[in-house]
UniProtKB/TrEMBL annotation:
Record keyword Heme present: no
Gene3D superfamilies in alphabetical order: Ribulose bisphosphate carboxylase, small subunit
Domain of life according to the entry: Bacteria
Domain Ribulose bisphosphate carboxylase small subunit: start-end pairs: 1-54
Native organism: Actinomadura keratinilytica
The protein's assembly and partners: Heterohexadecamer of 8 large and 8 small subunits.
Keywords, in A-Z order: Calvin cycle, Carbon dioxide fixation
Disordered: annotated segments: 77-96
UniProt protein name: Ribulose bisphosphate carboxylase small subunit domain-containing protein
Length: 96
C-alpha cells in the first residue's frame, strides 16, 4: 500500500501525483489503483485497475487436472518458477 487514503478528494491531480511517485519508487513492479466509495455506510471498492506493469512480465500457465467424479482442478503456474532462483528475471540480451 502506498501513502495514506485520500478522503474527500476534490482534485484528481493529487491521485495522479501519488501514482507518479509510486512509479518512481517502484519502476519494475505492478501498481494497482483502488478507489473506494463510502456512500453506502461502509467502505466498498468502486474502482480497481492496474496502472503499471513491469517491463519483464513472464506470465502464467494454466495447469488443468481431471480428478475423480469428473472434477477439474485448475492451477496457475508462473513461468518465472521454471528458472532457478536468481535467474528468474529475463534480460533483453537473453536468447529465447
Amino acid at each position: 500500500m502506498w501513502g495514506l487514503p485520500m478522503f474527500d478528494l476534490a482534485d484528481p491531480a493529487g491521485v495522479v501525483h501519488e501514482v507518479n511517485e509510486c512509479r518512481r519508487a517502484y519502476p519494475d513492479h505492478y501498481i494497482r489503483l483502488n478507489a473506494y466509495d463510502a456512500s453506502h455506510g461502509r467502505q466498498t471498492t468502486a474502482l480497481s485497475f492496474i496502472v503499471q506493469r513491469p517491463a519483464d512480465e513472464p506470465g502464467f500457465r494454466i495447469d488443468r487436472e481431471e480428478t475423480r467424479d469428473r472434477q477439474v482442478r485448475v492451477r496457475l503456474h508462473p513461468y518465472a518458477l521454471d528458472r532457478p532462483r536468481g535467474a528468474r528475471r529475463a534480460s533483453a540480451e537473453e536468447p529465447d
